[in-house]
Specification:
Helices cover about 60% and strands about 0% of the residues. It is mainly α. Helix 3 packs across helix 4.
């Protein structure tokens, strides 16, 4: 699966409201993408982002994945065609 370009990320995040969060929607969505795409631990995601100059605690990442993760993962699967239709 390829990384989303900026236009695809904007349409993906329109349904999700990031209002009231300290970091921008690009940082939050990139963090969630790293967590789900590469199956990294929360601390590993924090370490990867700290190497890019973004300092986050693993608790913030845990909160974001809990709050936004299901919608984000659902959209990723929908875009990649992985969702299976029910045969029942």
């Amino acid at each position: 699966m390829a990384y989303f370009d900026s236009q695809q990320r904007r349409t993906l995040t329109r349904a999700i409201s990031y209002k009231g969060h300290r970091f921008t929607e690009e940082i939050i969505s990139h963090t969630i993408w790293l967590y789900y795409r590469f199956a990294l631990s929360l601390r590993n995601v924090s370490e990867v982002l700290s190497q890019r100059g973004i300092l986050l605690s693993y608790e913030a990442i845990r909160y974001w994945t809990k709050k936004f993760g299901l919608n984000f993962a659902w959209e990723i699967k929908k875009r990649s065609g992985i969702l299976m239709k029910s045969a029942w």
